[in-house]
Amino acid sequence: PTHGGSLRVFAQRRDTAAHPVCASVPALREREANAGMSDADFYRGFQVEAERVKDDLTRFLIDAKRQGLTVGAYGAAAKGNTLLNFAGVKRDLLPYVVDKNPVKQGRFLPGSRIPIVSEDHLRASRPDRVLILPWNLADEVMAQLAYIREWGGAFVTAVPRMNLI
């Protein structure tokens, strides 16, 4: 399943039977409880981890800029955009995001206003690092963009940890 699976949730008043509770719900709630998801500490840990990812990404981009390294990103999907907005990343640290979908090209990421460009821009700009925003597809993206290694470029992922590949 994509992104670890999906849930469809219907919310309603208790005195409504428009959507009866599916038989799988009690089992799922038990699994969540067993995983500690009923405890606020579970979510505090998630917050701590999210802050670490944010800080590591921001530090990487600032350090790259200070070292004179150029960084572009690949993948203008929701998960990457959410990460960039959470980290407060703007065009000063990440000048563009490449996406192969022509419908997205020429537009901007919501929030950060980072431009979305075609892969031709990546080839022309020859960045030192390419940040792969859809980290779950890193192997596929690296295979597709393997040519960046011809100019000494390298790939980077930010989740679950910063990783220079």
From TrEMBL:
Membrane-crossing residue ranges in chain numbering: none
Key word Ubl conjugation present: no
GO molecular function: methyltransferase activity
Pfam families tied to this protein: Methyltransf_14
InterPro entries: MeTrfase_14
GO biological process: methylation
Record domain C-methyltransferase: where: 1-160
Keyword line: Methyltransferase, Transferase
Protein name per its UniProtKB record: SAM-dependent methyltransferase
Biological classification of the source: Bacteria, Pseudomonadati, Pseudomonadota, Alphaproteobacteria, Hyphomicrobiales
